Amino acid sequence: MKYSSYLSGLAFASLISVPALAQTPISPRFNADPSPHVFNNRIYVYATDDASNSGDYWDSTSWRLYASDDLKTWTDEGAFLSVSVFGWAKPDAKAWAPGAIERDGKYYFYAPVGGDKIGVAVADKPEGPFRDARGTPLVDKALDANAGDEPIDPHIFIDADGQAYMTFGTRVPKIVKLKPDMITLDGAIEDLVINGFPEDDPKKTYGEAPFIHTHGNKYYFTFSTGWPGQIVYATSDKAEGPYTYQGVILDYLNISTNHQAILEHDGRTWLFYHDRLLLGGGSHRRSITLQEMTYGPDGRIHQVPLPAASVRK
Ligand code: FUB
Fold it and tell me: Which residues lie below 8 Å from residue 269, measured CB to CB, with a gap of 6+?
């Protein structure tokens, strides 16, 4: 199904009571936790499917894929993968915020399953079909001493020297190297260190949604501060950190979660996140949207403005 988000902005704005052209969802279907990528000149967004959950919890068991050529008109590529691809997963295991990456012509999909395991699936095309790449979880809370309380929200970053890292986790950010095969951990899972949180704001802490990207000669670690969360960032001169807290990118929303990802496309930078944008929306019925993100000459990220309807009261 094709959906032109910007062109239908005015119609949607009246339906969902946000100012025209302020924020428009990429789909009329509830979705969340964007993992955007440019693969073969096409933009793909892997997502949590909020339309198939119970409405009371994030208990969907499948992920959704959207594609676009221009960031304006989006195609719903459907429920391209379910937790059932992993033979070790319980059939009702919840499917949460995914990560993805391409390496050597293969597409890897990192899937938090059930809140206690991360699986990895592989395909020859961005839209699949994906198969379990290992036959066992890549991370299993029961087996990995430092996997943390909740190994969720995997994000993959490949550094300029080819080293791949996976970050993940709730409340304590985790980082681990991946071997070049992208399906094997290379060493121990470590706690990612963030220094310099403002002492006068106890809410400024790590919550979830870890994401690493680079700009200039800096590494940026962005994340949500919790529930509800602001999207904030820290910088470092190394992918592994330690990172130093810098500031807010996106303020609190009128929903309990916030989950960002950053995409460079045609020389511009886009902040993807989810918000409450559709009629009937809420904390378990979220909608992915995007806004341009810009940097100052010193590398500082400018806070992305929110429409009044989205700002948490
Ligand atoms: O969608 C379920 C969970 O909500 C994700 O894993 C978190 O990042 C939060 O957005």
Answer: 215, 262, 263, 292, 293, 294, 295
Segments making up each domain of the chain, as ranges: 77-310
Closest to 174 measured CA to CA, from 146, 195, 204, 138: 146
CATH class belonging to 77-310: mainly beta
Question: What is the distance in A from the centroid of ligand 1 to the CA of 168?
Answer: 12
Spatial separation of the C-alpha atoms in residues 166 and 183, rounded to whole Å = 11
pTM above 0.85? yes
For the Cβ of 49 lying below 6 angstroms from any atom of ligand 1, the answer is no
pLDDT over threshold 80, residue 109? yes
H-type helices in 9-153, by residue range?
Answer: 9-16
Q: In the numeric block, which tokens belong to residue 163?
A: 């080293």
Encode pLDDT of 200-218 as tens digits: 999 999 999 999 999 999 9
Region at 99 (left for phi over 0; alpha for psi -120 to 50; beta for the rest): beta
**What is the rounded CA–CA span in Å between residue 51 and residue 54?**
8
Does ligand 1 have an atom closer than 6 angstroms to the CB of 48? Answer: yes
